[in-house]
Amino acid sequence: MEDDKLMYIHPAPVRVWHWVNAVGFVILIITGIQIRFAEMVDWFSLEEAIQLHNYVGFVVIAIYGLWVSYYFGTMKIKLYFPNPRAFVPNAIKQIRYYGSGIFKGEPNPHHMTPDNKFNVLQKNAYVGIMFVFLPAQMITGLFLWRVKRFENYIELIGGIKIVSTIHVLLFFFFTAFIFVHVYLATLGHTPLAHFKAMFTGYEEHHEPEEA
Amino acid sequence: MKINYCFLVGVCIAILGSGLIAANVYAIENDECMECHSDDSLERSESEGMKEDLYIDYNTFKYSVHNVNGITCIDCHSDIEELNWDNEVPHPVSLAMVDCGGCHEEEAEAYVDSVHKKAGGKGITIPCYACHGYHFVTHLEADSVYERENKFCLKCHNPDNFHEWLPQKDTHFAFVECAVCHAPDSPRYISLRFYDLISKKFLSGKDLLAALDTDYENFMGKLDQDKDDVISLQELEDMVLLLRQKDVRGTFHGELVLELVPTVHHINRGGANRECEQCHNPQSPFFEEVYITLNKEDGTGQRQKVERRVLESYYVNHFYAIGGTRVRYLDKIGLVLIVGGLSVVAGHLLVRVATAPARRKRKGKKDQFSI
User: How much is the ipTM here?
Assistant: First the structure.
């Protein structure tokens, strides 16, 4: 491996956010399952599960603050927004790659660079996740943490059950997302390449088979 | 002087008989008591400069459950046998403590072995009326959790001081009556009340019935289509639809309250239910009994049984116990999402593995050409 084949793709704040968020998500999912399905699983007491869920929820909210500060502070946030003109053709190319080209050994139509690290589908997905789904999950989680304190806001949304429904549906979505996300991360030039890059910050530049 | 014993016996019988007749005919009426006790300045001095208010507000008293049921002043203050108007105070100045247990036997029995009664040994006396009040006892069954708690537990206890361990204690205090956990032997139920989103208040039973064009007697006849004496989810939907047609838009608020049975008095230190899973699981017995409460002006309420499944519906938007009243079909959506995600992963991986030899072959050929 030569140095000129390494690209610094994931700056330190992003890596810190990513891994804290990842561990946080796993704990939130496990404790979430215990809280929702207390009659089926017995990993913790409900009291412990709720307390852990609450603490970790705040860690995830705080670390999201780091992500927002970094990306908006450096204006690298534009990484997340696809070019509207090229969106459709690029999306078709990328879908074709994941649905067929990848099986034939064709190169990934997206070439990762520090300024353009996401393909068009990733951009689309992450804009939705980071700007809609994750904030919605954090806000509804906050409301569920102190129902009485936020009762006026809960009322605006339509009641505690609506708030809970949003939180639960997003919980299922994020659980499914993690499986898909981890799988997609194995589509690098080696199955562990993207995982390694998320620790070191450096992606190796290889033409074929990139996720 | 010769005493005619027969005459004397006759006189005694006559006096006793007339006394008995007089007791019946001239029993002390509430009006007589009120001659003095309607004076709002009436009070008596106690030790250490304390004063006891002896005023009875008759307008309130007349709606008290005892008066409504024909219980008079002297039925409770039974040591007043006669009124002697020649005295400044026409009855004994110091009266005996009212013995509520004389009528409320089961309640008194449950109370004997309770923390409140036992507190008596520590120099404190907690008689019934310390919680229930003296002369203005009203029905509680249609009361909300707030009303029940304000009238009783919160008079002495500050729950904030003892529930640090309880997640969302404010929410629990708002939706769960104290004794639901503290008197775990007593049956409890979910009381649903209709909250009008336009007037922003709970509709009284009378108003709700008026909006439905019915009355207390015909309420079930109108709603309970299958005549099983239970309002099903479908029947509740029909009811909401009927209300919407009358421009009444709202939602049902739920609260977990106790059946007012004698065992509610059997509260003991360390006896409270602290196991969250008792309540927060879908098989919890706490949610088995669900009723719509139609309150009446006298404080009583007419309760109509409702299918438990309504708690999982969006018609009861403001009552949600994690795990306990969860919306089941969300779990099905969740299952589809997760199984769908895993299937996509598994399918894609499978095709990748299956096509790996072809890719290797293709790569080999490419390398050959490039050599």
Answer: 0.87
